[in-house]
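Form 7-S
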Amino acid sequence: MADKLFKTLLEMQPQDAAAGSAVSKEEKVKAMVDEVMGSLPDSFNVQELMSRVEERTPFISVALQECDRMSMLTNEIRRSLKELDLGLKGDLTITESMEALMNAIFFGTVPASWEKLAYPSLNPLAAWYADLLQRIKELEAWVAEFQLPAVVWLPGLFNPQSFLTAIMQTTARKNEWPLDRMVLTVEVLKKPREECTAPPREGAYIHGLYMEGARWDGNAGCIAESLLKELTPAMPVVFVKAIPVDKRETKGIYECPMYRTRQRGPTYVWTFNLKTKEAPAKWVLAGVAMLLSAE
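Output:
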């Protein structure tokens, strides 16, 4: 799907008018509009999903919120493309917003009206849309029976912070611990994602993380220097669970910030304590961080 979209976008780049067979901008955009309209899944029926919920646990609340956000985004994509399609057919006058949408599609960038309802991303349009479809697929699997996925794709969430908070809320309720006296602790697993066939009894397994400025040494079980040409190596599956703050390890750890994109700054998500055999200052100076996207 992503390859097909990318091919469509490449074909939409300006061509030499002298070639004679050059397709117009409108025709190229129309092809992309048809492609997306034909492949975009139906929006989630959040009311129907809520009616199926017997107990609104923290994890189920996150799933419903994610479906609601996704529906807002897909509704806008569908609405704006239908409107543009009518404009391209001559049934509507092309407005300024339709022109902006057409230009964004033509140049392979995410339209501003979509971006406003989406999540931080540096991807061009084709990769962004392929990623969107994957997010929808993951959500559909989660809400089918409202069972927490065996391994949660954290980058696929609009609000990863709310999911991580839900881990603490779930543990706090179960053990009757005060939420404000709890923290998250992580264990980087050695087993591959395929072997994680069910969620843990407490906490959650997450995947889709990357590291920038260093790498995770699976054999040594700690942060290590980056290998040559490996800018953002993928992290193994991470087991996240909540513990009382006084049980938190403080020695031999690096407080590793996690961001959504390589822009860092406003895309901050959380800080995980990762094991290190070297002084944490080394990783601070190297600007080591985890990312939810390597793009």
